[in-house]
Design goal:
Shape: globular
Number of helices: 0
Strand content: over 45%
Order of helices and strands: EEEEEEEEEE
Helix content: under 10%
Oligomer: single chain
Radius of gyration: 15 Å
Structural class: mainly beta
Largest sheet: 10 strands, antiparallel, barrel
């Protein structure tokens, strides 16, 4: 996989099954700790595959978000920026790359509920018509991770 155009797969409209922790920082397990809800994302690539943009809506949650992904050829890495309709604020980026196996791993510093965290995004299970994304937070300098959000995306037929 060419890292510089790795988000080229992510075009079109996808139905998204979201599953997130009801408390992003609670590491306890159990079905009652998770909530599932739908989403729809519309994605496009730009700059000959070296930029990616999507807007995702969460109809049962009443909010939406945008992600801008930009490739930096000098360091062979992507920067991913998220903005939520709820706040109108562009969050700090996570940066990283796709490995030869097609899995993308991205890290960045952020804050959640007033606590400094390290964020990790993983893109995996990428096929022509589907992909998986997950988010995890670390409170201890990446020694442990709390995975707190999964998205399973399935491309809608054109």
């Amino acid at each position: 996989m060419d890292n510089s155009t790795a988000f080229g797969f992510f075009t079109g409209t996808y139905d998204v099954v979201n599953r997130w922790r009801t408390d992003f920082l609670d590491p306890a397990e159990g079905a009652d700790r998770w909530e599932e809800f739908p989403g729809v994302t519309r994605a496009s690539v730009h700059f000959d595959g070296r930029a990616s943009f999507d807007e995702i809506t969460f109809p049962t949650k009443g909010f939406a978000g945008l992600t801008l992904r930009l490739y930096d050829p000098e360091v062979d890495a992507w920067s991913l920026y998220w903005a939520s309709k709820r706040t109108g604020i562009l969050f700090p980026p996570v940066t990283g790359r796709f490995g030869p196996d097609g899995t993308g791993v991205f890290h960045g510093d952020d804050e959640h509920d007033g606590r400094k965290i390290r964020a990790r995004f993983i893109w995996s299970e990428i096929t022509e018509n589907s992909a998986h994304w997950e988010q995890a937070f670390s409170l201890d300098g990446e020694q442990t991770w709390i995975t707190n959000w999964h998205m399973h995306m399935t491309r809608r037929p054109a």
